[in-house]
Amino acid sequence: MKKHEIDMCNGSLPKQMFYFSLPLMLSNVLQVLFNMADVAVVGRFAGSIALGSVGSTSTLVNLFTGILIGTSGGVNVLVALYAGAKNKKDLKEMVHTSAIICAIIGVLMMVFGFGFARVILEAMSTKPELIDGAVLYFRIYMLGMPALAIFNFGNAVFSANGNTKKPLFFLSLAGVCNVVLNLFFVIVCHMSVAGVALASIISQYLSAILIVRELCKSKEDYGLTFTELRLTGSKVVPLLKIGIPSGLQNGIFMFANLFIQIGVNSFDATVVAGNSAAANADALVYDVMAAFYTAAASFIGQNFGARNKKRIMHSYFIGMGYALAAGLIMGLGLVALGHPFLGLFATEEAVIEAGMQRLIVMGCSYWISAFMDCSIAASRGLGRSGVPTFIVIMGSCVFRIFWIYTIFAHFGTIMSLYLLYAFSWTITAIAEMLYFFRAYKQEVGKI
Question: Where are the domains positioned within the chain?
Answer without folding.
Answer: 13-444
